[in-house]
Specification:
Elements: H1 2-13, H2 26-32, E1 33-39, E2 43-48, E3 51-58, H3 61-71, H4 80-85, E4 87-89, E5 95-105, E6 108-121, H5 131-136, E7 146-150, H6 156-169, E8 174-178, E9 186-187, E10 190-191, E11 199-203, H7 207-218, E12 222-225, H8 231-242, E13 246-252, H9 256-260, H10 263-270, E14 276-282, E15 288-294
Parallel strand pairs: 7-13, 7-14, 8-11, 8-12, 12-13
Antiparallel strand pairs: 1-2, 1-6, 2-3, 4-5, 5-6, 9-10, 14-15
Helix pairs in contact: 1-2, 7-8, 8-10
Length: about 300
C-alpha cells in the first residue's frame, strides 16, 4: 500500500512548489498523507491517517498562486468553470478543493479569484481494498448493483476503483462515467490508475450524459460512477439498469437510513438499481471499516 501512495505523492510533488515540503519527512508523508491543506497566511498542514502535522511553509499570496499554476499545469484559465464550482481535478486523479473570493452576477457564481485555500486530496490505488465486497457479494453469483456510502474523504472513490478493477479483471465488461477524472485519472485519454482490463472510460463528461453514451455505445455489463447527486443522474442509472447493466455508484451518506432521506437515492433503491450497500467508516487511527447491508424496501 505504501508504494502506491508514495507514487501518488511523488507525482503531485512534481506539480507543486518545492518550498511547500521544506523540512518535512517525505518518507512518512508518502505512507501516511491523505490531504494537504493550504490556507492563506498560515502554515501548510499535512493531514495524516491518524492526525496531522504542520509544515514550515507559510501560504503567502505568491505560494497560493504558484500552487494553482502548478496543479493546473499553467492553464488556470482553462479550469475556470471548475474553479467556480469549488474544486478541480489535477493530474493523477487528485481532487483539489478551493475557496477564496467569489465574483457573483445576478445571484450566480461567475468566477473564483484571489484563491486563499486549497484542500489537495491525494488519490490512491489500494489494490485489494474491495476484497470483502467481492467475497461477500459478487463471488456468490450476485448480479445486483452496489451503492457505496460514506461521509466525504473516507475512501468511496478508492473502493469503487478497486471494485470495478476486480470485476473487470474477473471477466465482466465495465464502463466508467468519470465526470471529474478521479476514478481512472486519465491522461491523454489513457487511465493512469488501474480500473481493469475490460473497462472503458468516458472522461470529464457530465455523469448523466456519460452514463447514457456508454450504455448506447459500449454495451457494458457494469456501469460505474462516483457521487450520484441529482435526479437526472439517478434517472440515467435507472435507464442503464433497465438496459441490463449492473450499477455500481457512490453517494455521500453516513448510513442507508441517511441515504434514503435523499429523494433520488431512494428512487434508485426502490427501482432495484442497488441490491447491496457498502458503508465505509473511519476509525480514530485512520483505518477504514466496511459494513455490507442487503437493501430491501
Amino acid at each position: 500500500m505504501a508504494n502506491a501512495e508514495t507514487n501518488a505523492l511523488v507525482g503531485l510533488r512534481k506539480l507543486l512548489p518545492k518550498e511547500l515540503f521544506y523540512n518535512t519527512d517525505m518518507d512518512m508523508l508518502g505512507a501516511e498523507c491523505e490531504e494537504i491543506r493550504i490556507r492563506a497566511g498560515r502554515n501548510v498542514r499535512f493531514v495524516l491517517r491518524g492526525g496531522e502535522i504542520a509544515g514550515s511553509a507559510v501560504a503567502t499570496p505568491k505560494l497560493c498562486r504558484d500552487v494553482l499554476e502548478g496543479l493546473s499545469e499553467h492553464s488556470a484559465p482553462a479550469i475556470e468553470n471548475e474553479l467556480k464550482e469549488g474544486f478541480f481535478t489535477a493530474r493523477g486523479g487528485c481532487r483539489v478543493g478551493v475557496c477564496g473570493q467569489m465574483y457573483t452576477k445576478n445571484g450566480l457564481c461567475e468566477r473564483l479569484w484571489q484563491i486563499s485555500g486549497f484542500n489537495i486530496r491525494i488519490a490512491r490505488q489500494i489494490k485489494g481494498c474491495a476484497d470483502k465486497i467481492i467475497r461477500e457479494i459478487y463471488s456468490c453469483g450476485n448480479a445486483g448493483g452496489l451503492l457505496v456510502l460514506s461521509i466525504p474523504g473516507t475512501g468511496k472513490t478508492t473502493l469503487l476503483r478497486d471494485t470495478v478493477r476486480q470485476l473487470s479483471d474477473g471477466g465482466l465488461s465495465a464502463a466508467v462515467a468519470d465526470e471529474r477524472g478521479e476514478i481512472a485519472a486519465c491522461y491523454m485519454g489513457a487511465p493512469t490508475l488501474d480500473v481493469g482490463e475490460r473497462t472503458d472510460i468516458m472522461d470529464m463528461c457530465p455523469k448523466a450524459e456519460g452514463i447514457r453514451k456508454l450504455v448506447r455505445s459500449m454495451s457494458p455489463r457494469l456501469i460505474v460512477t462516483d457521487e450520484i447527486g441529482t435526479r437526472e443522474e439517478a434517472d440515467a442509472l435507472l435507464d442503464a439498469k433497465n438496459c441490463g447493466a449492473i450499477a455500481i455508484a457512490s453517494a455521500h451518506a453516513s448510513s442507508v437510513e441517511d441515504a434514503l432521506r435523499r429523494e433520488h437515492i431512494r428512487a434508485l433503491i426502490e427501482g432495484g438499481c442497488f441490491t447491496h450497500a457498502a458503508i465505509i467508516t473511519r476509525r480514530a487511527d485512520g483505518a477504514r471499516d466496511i459494513a455490507i447491508e442487503k437493501l430491501t424496501l
